[in-house]
Amino acid sequence: MEVRHTTNPTDVKQYDTERLRSEFLIESLFVQDQIKMTYTHYDRMIVGGATPVNETLELEDAATLKTEYFLERREIGFLNIGGPASISVDGEVYELSKLEVLYVGKGKRQVLLSSVDKANPAKLYFCSALAHAEIATRKMTMEEANPTHLGSQETSNERVLYKYIHADGIQSCQLMLGVTSLKTGSVWNTMPSHVHDRRMEAYLYFDMNDDARVFHMMGEPSQTRHLVVANEQAIISPPWSIHSGVGTSNYTFCWSMAGENYTFTDMDAVPASELK
């Protein structure tokens, strides 16, 4: 597991492109028959990807976490962005189609990840946060995720928001997770921008062509920067940073949050007129 430490917004003003990418961009998440994980000290979230093809993969990293098993003091949310997946949680099996989510709570000892069809392998994206209580495992389909239509063609941000893990959906200790899908012809996400100083956020961009890119905007509102993001790459967004993006075509992204406040609407909007 790769470990990344937090950064000071004053110092980030001096970063060049290479340093920005090394601190905030996760470039490789989905490697055949491997689990790839990044531990960020921003609210101690773990961002990862698993691509089981010929092997069943077990969620574990005792060397980094210093615990007996992965979910000893953690919770986790899985989003499948590939072919049909099978997840075994202490012997109970859950099957996930594309854009279905499985929440697994604190205290579950063994989590095994596999593909139903290795010719069409699963791609399991996951985010894990610290947990203080045991909450029941629960699966949710895209149709159950309260799809909300937002934006318009006129502002190039017509999109559908799906909320899976949140106060009114799948219950958790602090983890929130959802998916936003942009309509054809729309390219902007999370605009107007906002920050939420009480929690960090991670973005996974996917369902993009190989030659497509998203220009992910980050930084303090008065000191914005950008990262150029390819398909199936993820962003670590600090609490002090905006997190907006514009693509060369439409795309889908998964957003996940962890931190102090569990209220979805806890955010401080930043008008475009104030961005620099």
Automatic annotation (TrEMBL):
Keywords: Isomerase, Metal-binding, Zinc. It catalyses: 5-dehydro-4-deoxy-D-glucuronate = 3-deoxy-D-glycero-2,5-hexodiulosonate. It is an enzyme of class 5 (isomerase). GO terms for biological process: D-galacturonate catabolic process; D-glucuronate catabolic process; pectin catabolic process. Its EC number is 5.3.1.17. Pathway: Glycan metabolism; pectin degradation; 2-dehydro-3-deoxy-D-gluconate from pectin: step 4/5. Catalyzes the isomerization of 5-dehydro-4-deoxy-D-glucuronate to 3-deoxy-D-glycero-2,5-hexodiulosonate. PANTHER family: 4-DEOXY-L-THREO-5-HEXOSULOSE-URONATE KETOL-ISOMERASE (PTHR38461:SF1). Belongs to the KduI family. This is 4-deoxy-L-threo-5-hexosulose-uronate ketol-isomerase.
